[in-house]
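Escalation from tier 1.

The customer reports that the assembly of two entities below gives different structure tokens on two consecutive runs. Tier 1 could not reproduce it. I'm attaching the input and our single run for tier 2 to review.
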Amino acid sequence: MRQDHNHEHRTRPSTNGSSANGSSPHTNGSSKSSGETNGYHTNGHSNGEGAVREHDDSPFFGHDREEVTRILLQSLSDLGYRNAAKQLSGESGYELEIPSVASFREAVLDGRWDEAEALLFGAETAEADGGVLLGNGHTRSRRKSRASFGSQNGYARQGLPLAEGADTTQMKFSLRQQKYLEMLDNRELNSALKVLRNELTPLKRDIGRLHALSSLMMCHSSDDLRMQAEWDGPEGDSRTLVLSEISKSISPSVMIPEHRLAMLLTAVQEEQILNCRYHNTTAQPTLYTDHDCPAEDFPLQTLTELRHHSDEVWYVEFSHDGSMLATAGKDGLVCIYDTRTYALRHEIREHDRNLNSASSAEGSNSKGVCYVVFSPDDQYLISCAQNNEFVVISVRDGRRVAHADHFDYPVTTAAWLPDSQTFVIGTQGSRRPLGLYSLRSGAGTSSASNVVKNNEIHSWRDPPWDATQGSNPNSFRITDCCVSPDGERLVATTIDNRILSFDLRTREKIGEWVMHDRLTSINFGVDGTQLLLNMNEGQVFTLNAETGEFIMRYEGAQQKEFVIRSCFGGAGENFILSGSEDSKVFIWRRQTGALVAELEAHAGGTVNAVAWHPTEHGVFASAGDDRRVRIWASASAIRPPSAEAGASRTSLGYYASR
Amino acid sequence: MGLAYNIYLNSNKIYGCKTCKTHLADHDDIISRNFRGQHGKAFLFDKVVNIVASDPSERNMTTGRHVVRDITCRQCKDTVGWKYDKAYESTEKYKEGKFILEAELLCNVT
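Tier 1 run:
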């Protein structure tokens, strides 16, 4: 009988991941020489038909026809079109899975663990520790019947072929662990104990997990068990999870990795997205065409220039909802613009007021606002100045609500916590380098017109300030700081090239990384998982926010003497934007580090700071030494809209006529 | 040109600009205290930070003819002393490239 003939040929597969039998069991002269077929043709399968089918073995556009058809079969079943799948397998003569794999899958999903193990590893191995089988005495008789079934496809003896590097002990461990948990869930404590002792422990693997599992025996009820083990019970996803985990170790030609077609499509799309230079959307591109974003939709052209500052502009930032833009400069002026029309909304000269007339005459160089930041609810704005003070202004009316001037050195940076009431201030002083301040004054002052002054609620200093000592040793001095979006962590850069990170709940220092050159800018990005840094001699790079590991470097920007800032930007934070000392703005793709554009921005001076619009992804702003702030937008937004272009263009389109 | 932070020195006794307290030099870097400037006592330093040097000019000083440049604080632009570019007499050559800060224009910063 042909079936036995095939069976003998298949006695050769090894279970260490090589593909199954290299012999060609089919006698119909197929041209395929790849040994991976495992004889899925219907002539080797006992589906009752037994007739030889002549089928087309020609390659499908250069791909193996069998592989393509089986992947299609898997996708059709995944999509739920079972009848179509059956028809396809009938028509093509290929089966998605050989019966032993299908029965393995069913065994796991039904919870017949011993059978599953026998199918997976082969009857001998199951018999080798056969003395271990407990309770389910019926498996012996079942195995006998299985053996006769198995001879038809020959895998019962040797088990399923495994992938390369498959860890059989780990696979046994996860099967037996699931068995143990289900027994505990069912309150079969004795059987569970036997499984633990006789099946899990001899594997000598993962002692910590074994101890955890044995402690689960103490659980009073199955709900307690589920909570403690983080396991959702036999009727939940746990069996499917065990199946997926094990299927990764089975040879992929026998058991196709799950959702293979979807994985292939995703991989191709991701690669196209990575290669797309101007990809500034988070929308999923269509599968119908190769994806490539046009340059017209990327902000590469100047929309307008703001010229209110009378001296170098040092910082620029959009509000969190994108409705306002704040700029700060060396002339001590803070300007707030409305981003729809770029009209000046407020001009704030808070820092001028503090200077008395004597010093302001010659003190024009000690002025200068080097940092502004909006609160997360966009109600307040902090501005940090070189004349050793910071001021908090309410954005709606331009009034000051808080300030502090108990510093002896310039205030360099500020960052809000998510509650919009507390914020961190970094300065270059050694007495109070890093402090946590609150808008709410501690002593419960009554009237709203009181400006909160010097309200520091916590100070970080190393070594801590000792008021009894005449002179305290110097502490670190801060150049930039940022708070993670969830408000848990604070990261600050110091003047001696260190990055310090603090936990905001406990206010303890949780980490310190030493860099080898001056750091001028730090920002959180990608939901607080990455940190973007500017370091001297032109280095812009990202680090992992938890471990400090280097992720990606972005080349091209120049930085040697001045403070240059950078930021994340674009849809999905796909881009990194940085200023540079050669008056250019640099844009890179965040994921790949590829340079997207190098724009001449502010002739004759450094580009000090850049900011990307948080909601309108086609707009960003840059601030430079030529006293101007430049707003950039895409060519398609600037061009006057054509008659049939639609309403979405008109919002920026009217600038073109100004 | 751009925003640049001052350099900060790490020491117990630092001399800084009287008006804006910018760090200028470390007390331990003093080479000689035996100098006098327009405003009285002055010190000779090897290393001074946060200063801007102006154009050189030739001057006759008590010790002879020298080419010096005035140095001013980077932040507030106040004069704080001068720098020796060249000394014409061989006994004064040791001063070349070094800085003088006048005690009257300095303050102690912690």
